Amino acid sequence: MRAVDIIIKKRDGEELSREEIEFFIDGFTRGEIPDYQASAWAMAVLLRGMTDRETTDLTMAMAHSGETLDLTGVVPVAVDKHSTGGVGDKTTLVVEPVVAACGLPVGKMSGRGLGFSGGTLDKMESIPGYRTNLSREEFIDQLQREGLVLTGQSGDLAPADGKLYALRDVTGTVPSIPLIASSIMSKKIAAGAQAIVLDVKIGLGAFMENLEEGRKLARLMVAIGELSGRKVVALLSDMNQPLGWAVGNALEVREALDTLRGSGPEDFREHCLVAAAHMLIVGRKAANLETARSMAEGALESGRALESFRRLVQAQGGDVRYVDEPNRLPQALLVETVPASRAGYLLGINAREVGETSVELGAGRARKEDPIDHAVGIEIHHKVGDYVQAGEPLFTIHANDAAKLTAARMRLLAAHQWSTEPVQPLPLFYDVIGG
Ligand code: URA
Description:
Blueprint: H1 3-11, H2 18-29, H3 35-48, H4 52-63, E1 79-83, H5 91-101, E2 106-109, H6 120-124, H7 136-146, E3 148-151, H8 159-170, H9 177-190, E4 195-202, H10 211-227, E5 231-238, E6 246-247, H11 249-260, H12 266-282, H13 289-301, H14 304-315, H15 321-324, E7 334-339, E8 344-349, H16 351-363, E9 377-380, E10 387-388, E11 393-399, H17 402-415, E12 416-419, E13 429-434
Parallel strand pairs: 1-4, 2-3, 4-5
Antiparallel strand pairs: 5-13, 6-9, 7-11, 8-10, 8-12, 9-11
The protein binds uracil.
The site of uracil has 8 residues, from helix 9.
């Protein structure tokens, strides 16, 4: 078999066999197929697409390109949740402790922020001492002991995806549904997930800007799950405006703690309860959504979820005083609340613009190795559909640099769109697929 023939076959719109896909992924992982051939192949896939069968074969080839984690016997059902990435999406920080507090063990390997979307590991590292680099043994031990783990990827899981994603990022081949689906699902399968709740974000602050594309991606990931013997349910959720109020690492941890203490923004709390309820169902802790939801509410309202979060921080070496007294979390030197310059209904708060502004303040990174500033970020004070009076607080900027603060103010003002007519609030969820 030759790599060039596989590229030509896909370029000409033909279906690749499992052997061809395995040959290609194996050769690429071992460095025998060079980056330029893998890039050409990725472009052929982006332009020609793949069948569900090809995408499943690609997923399994990438999942088995390195180490895999087998959680059979460690937990009754290995459940996982994965968000396709968004702005203000601190869901994991609440959902995992809620689910664990309901008696369903959950071990999660999360990622860092890249581009406009934030990453769970960066958020958790706002808590001094919190370790995000647990070894495989530590992961399994803590999952058995505490029933809750939140760390970075341990070991060499799905290395083919890591290599291919880096190439896709610089060759214009990220927005391909089969490539995104196989990238996400290969990592989940390699990490031992048996039941997965996917949060597929749709909108300006997401990879998928329109609902139909999002549905296609969700259906495909559910199909891959079925074909590979995993249970997968995909929630399609809105990402046109930020989720909750806070965007930026320590600000988001504080908002997650507020939510675990029973306050926090209504949209974020609701989002977390729905996601947690679906996890309880796929994890076989509840038979239907109603029961699952009331279990999740109980965990939140009783303070058990907060206690789980505290135990998680302690188990991973974090300073729990930051959980007990969130005012200790990193704070920016310059905090400015910007008022609305006009009255009106909010028509849009461009999530991508808010996310990019937060990155420019220092909360995210342009390149993987860039340092980040945990203290900086943005709080929005209104949601789409709200009526805002002139002079009311519109957003607050947390900055450590005056020039960046000025630039952020201009950009955020432009990110808010207004209407003189009443505007419908945005839905939290559009659909649920699978399950
Ligand atoms: N997230 C991933 O893990 N992979 C993609 O290709 C896109 C989003």
